[in-house]
Amino acid sequence: MNQYELALVVNAKVEDDVKTATVEAAKALITRFGGVVTNVEDCGKKRLAYEIQKMKEAYYFFIQFDADATVPAEVEQRVRIMDNVIRFLCVRRDAE
User: 2-93 has which CATH code?
Assistant: First the structure.
């Protein structure tokens, strides 16, 4: 199993429960395809480097998980169409 990290940039204009539900949905996708979530880091609301969809701020989340090589593609395909996710990035982490 490989180690991955999924970075989510979530719309800052949503309610707290919607924000939490978005992160939980991403975690559910990872576990649905056979991954194991190891850590979720909430970095809070931060200013974006540039305006995206007329927004200047967003919430940042980093989800670390262990999974097979096919899981990130499946997760990315479904995160791409989530309403409140502005940007995302899934990268493979080096073993420490």
Answer: 3.30.70.60
Pairing relationship of beta strands 36-52 and 55-67 according to DSSP bridges: antiparallel
Residue ranges covered by each domain of the chain: 2-93
Cβ pair 4, 37 in contact under 8 A? no
Q: Are 37 and 3 in contact, with CB atoms under 8 Å apart?
A: no
With tokens 């090589």, the residue in question is: 69
Specify which residues 88 forms β-bridges with.
Answer: 8
Q: What is the pLDDT of residue 96?
A: 64
Distance CA 17, CA 53 (A): 22
Task: Give pTM, 2 decimals.
Answer: 0.91
Q: What span, in angstroms and rounded, lies between the C-alpha atoms of 28 and 54? A: 29
